[in-house]
Amino acid sequence: MAPGLASARPRVKLAGPAGDRTMRRRTLLALTAIPVAARAQSWPSRPVRIISSSPPAGASDILSRTIGQALQEQTGQPFVVENRAGAGGVVGSDFVAKSAPDGTTWLTTNVGPQAIFRELHRHLPYDTRTDFRHVTILGTLPLVLIVGRDQPYRTLAEYLADARARPGAMNFGSGGNGTLHHLTGELLNSAAHVRITHVPYRGAQAATTDVIGGRIEGMWDSLPSAAPHIRQGSVRALALSSANRSAAFPNVSTLRESGFPDLVTTNWFGLAGPARVPEEIVGAMYAQLRRALDSAPVRERFASIGVEPVGEPPDATQRYVLAEIERWSAVVRATGVTMD
User: Fold this and answer.
1) Quick one: which H or E segment has residue 81?
2) pTM of the full structure
3) I need a labelling partner for 335 at 20 to 30 A (CA). Which of 9, 18, 25, 158 fits?
């Protein structure tokens, strides 16, 4: 119970020798609700951690810091972003799944460790269906195929033509085995009838370094993490995986426009806590996130990196993630992708 609440409880005189049962029931319900309401109103009363499952400069990190700054300004409490990268997001996800459900530790999660990995990892250290309470989807974003500026490819057609001429000789990087980036590359291999070898990295930033340095021809990356390099000219964007072009990069065509009408993959990033976070705290966090997503600074930042804000309520988000688990499990089985 919050300090000072005991003295604030109303004194109720019950009618009759044994008391009026209806009055007693209503009184008990009202008294029970006092600490619940107080707990929601007082959150956050101490610093909050947002765990990013990607290294610095990855999409999860960028969104975490954008949202964290807005939440800190709104609440007056520190929102500290902590990077816990590894295993394509499993390390950070597992940390939050096993954290105390007190509203001080949250996870910026995405389709990989929440949906795709349930089928790929037979021994995940957490259960994606039951170990998280999802608050909302922060935003959706496309992946982008980038190549180094010294590569000869100016279009996707040129890239694929070279791949057909040299089966297995070209490489594409990703932020990890079994990630959406990996699956998108394999789906393109299948649709284009080419064999470009996948090279997994411990996070997108390491793969980007090798693309810029010419050690691999290209990679699939999330648009937010690739955006600065595209603008600087250190990499060239050949195609987006989304259904439509990005307003942030309107000159980059989609895979659908490039002859692959059924090849659309979109990543989503959400905020989740451990499964048993009290619902009143989940509601308080959602209210703050909704306010942040509606703010001009966050919307402008998201637009500049090609992220579309979402912000659906917690229960709808929970259902959405469960549906995504089913969807991507089917894709994994169809592609035959493994963690080897």
Assistant:
1) strand 79-83
2) 0.79
3) 158
Tens-digit pLDDT profile for residues 94-120: 999 999 999 999 999 999 999 999 998
Q: Is 108 in a helix, a strand, or coil? A: strand
Q: What are phi and psi of 147, to 5 degrees?
A: -130, 160
CA distance 198 to 171: 6
For strands 266-274 and 132-148, give the pairing: antiparallel
Region 288-310: mean pLDDT is: 96
C-beta separation of 238 from 155 below 8 A: yes
Q: Centre a 10 Å sphere on the Cβ of residue 281 and count the other Cβ atoms it contains.
A: 22
- pLDDT at residue 204, rounded to an integer: 86
Alpha helices in the chain (DSSP H): 5-8, 21-42, 59-75, 90-97, 111, 117-120, 156-165, 180-192, 204-212, 223-232, 279-293, 296-304, 314-335
| Four-CA torsion 172, 220, 332, 62, nearest 10 degrees | 140
CA atoms within 13 A on the CB side of 49: 15
C-alpha–C-alpha distance, residues 265 and 242, integer Å? 6
